[in-house]
């Protein structure tokens, strides 16, 4: 053995081995990169290369804690109970359900739970098998983080539940899929990628942010994220798409996107589409509100004419989740996030803003709660005003949900802590009316699903 280890090797052989190694490294890197762009180009080779490249990450998950979906530590959560608690005591109301979307750190996969209000008891739970659901995806966008399209890391962001217990699910920048009550696929859209919110319009169609795979704007980088608004039928047909940058440009706001030395690969960052369900003094049925985070802008857009009906930039900053409160007011989850180059942070605390179209004023809701709870939601964040005066606040960054009572006290609180004490991300939840929840539970109870 010693003689073998210290034997002389010809220089030409060393050089030849180095060249072969270099060619192999370049080819391997190309296949890994190509597997993220379009695995159909070299399906077997790309799959093998990607599997090899993921070995270190796989070993890390097997031998240690999976940190991909962990939240940042926050001392205010240290003393809070795991799961649901009732700081102000149990009380009556509101009636209905919460479709809670969360990463289950104990099970190491995402879960969707239908929780009854106000007792906060889980009535049904979906644990979707992403490995199976996305097995036949034909197209992987260059904007997607497809390495997380697996059972351990795929997040069901803002799932939508049909009356029959079906779910429409997606991650950020992923295909869109509808599954039945047992989690079996009904349809899949992989020609586009979808992200952020999913909202239903008055005709039963879903409005979901998407990205243009082929740019409609000339002279931008390949990495430019051109947001689009997409309308999808319950049967999985794309009925309408339109570019958000094009909307701005055609309405005279090119300077908001491409002024000198302010280029961004992600200039608008569309994070919510809120359909208008009925005519009012300030909007029409079929209009949509858009939340454009990276320019701190809320827009009211009319797809039927291509017109921006109304638009306001601030006083909210890096906002999320615009909701219609009544015929003249909207609410906005004001993250108050700032990016000053060296770091991204929340200035003070996040807040809930209300804009009144009738008198052009902005007011703030639940500020005492947001401040006392030190809610600093750097990204995402949802606010839902419930019919009886309660409100749901989802602090996605710190993985907690608050049910705020009409008197301003916290009626219920949820912290998404795993059995090992770690806290994992929430996945954008939604309120379900009692009638819709009861109807879905009736169907789910009759579904005969394989274990």
TrEMBL record:
Q: What organism does the record attribute this protein to?
A: Sphingobium fluviale
Q: Which InterPro entries match?
A: ASST-like, Quinoprotein_ADH-like_sf
* Xref: SUPFAM superfamilies: Quinoprotein alcohol dehydrogenase-like
Give me the segments passing through the membrane: 12-33
Which key words are in the record?
A: Membrane, Transmembrane, Transmembrane helix
What name appears for this protein in its UniProt entry? Aryl sulfotransferase
């Amino acid at each position: 053995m010693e003689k073998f280890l210290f034997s002389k090797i010809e220089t030409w052989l060393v050089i030849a081995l180095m060249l072969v190694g270099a060619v192999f490294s370049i080819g391997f890197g190309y296949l890994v990169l190509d597997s993220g762009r379009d695995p159909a180009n070299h399906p077997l080779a790309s799959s093998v290369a990607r599997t090899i490249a993921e070995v270190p990450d796989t070993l890390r998950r097997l031998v240690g804690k999976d940190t991909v979906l962990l939240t940042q530590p926050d001392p205010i959560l240290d003393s809070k109970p795991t799961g649901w608690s009732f700081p102000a005591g149990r009380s009556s109301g509101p009636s209905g359900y919460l479709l809670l979307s969360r990463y289950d750190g104990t099970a190491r996969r995402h879960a969707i739970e239908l929780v009854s209000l106000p007792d906060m008891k889980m009535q049904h739970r979906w644990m979707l098998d992403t490995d199976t659901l996305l097995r036949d995806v034909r197209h992987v966008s260059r904007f997607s983080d497809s390495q997380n399209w697996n059972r351990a890391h795929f997040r069901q962001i803002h799932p939508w539940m049909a009356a029959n217990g079906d779910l429409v699910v997606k991650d950020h920048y992923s295909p869109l899929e509808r599954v039945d009550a047992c989690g079996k696929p009904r349809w899949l859209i992989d020609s586009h990628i979808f992200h952020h919110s999913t909202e239903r319009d008055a005709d039963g169609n879903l409005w979901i942010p998407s990205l243009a795979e082929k740019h409609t704007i000339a002279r931008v980088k390949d990495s430019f994220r051109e947001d689009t608004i997409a309308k999808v039928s319950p049967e999985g047909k794309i009925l309408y798409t339109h570019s958000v940058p094009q909307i701005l440009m055609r309405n005279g706001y090119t300077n908001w996107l491409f002024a000198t030395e302010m280029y961004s690969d992600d200039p608008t960052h569309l994070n919510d589409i809120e359909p208008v369900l009925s005519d009012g003094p300030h909007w029409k049925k079929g209009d949509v509100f858009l939340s454009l985070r990276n320019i701190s802008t809320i827009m009211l857009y009319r797809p039927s004419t291509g017109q921006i009906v109304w638009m306001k930039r601030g006083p909210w900053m890096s906002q999320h989740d615009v909701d219609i409160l009544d015929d003249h007011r909207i609410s906005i989850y004001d993250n108050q996030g700032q990016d000053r180059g060296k770091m991204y942070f929340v200035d003070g605390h996040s807040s809930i803003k209300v804009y009144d179209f009738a008198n052009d004023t902005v007011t703030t809701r639940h500020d005492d709660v947001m401040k006392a709870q030190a809610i600093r939601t750097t990204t995402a964040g949802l606010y839902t005003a419930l019919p009886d005066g309660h409100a749901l606040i989802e602090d996605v960054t710190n993985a907690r949900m608050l049910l705020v009572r009409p008197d301003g006290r916290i009626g219920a609180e949820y912290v998404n802590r795993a059995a090992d004490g770690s806290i994992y991300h929430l996945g954008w939840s939604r309120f379900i009316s009692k009638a819709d929840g009861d109807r879905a539970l009736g169907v789910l109870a009759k579904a005969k699903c394989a274990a």
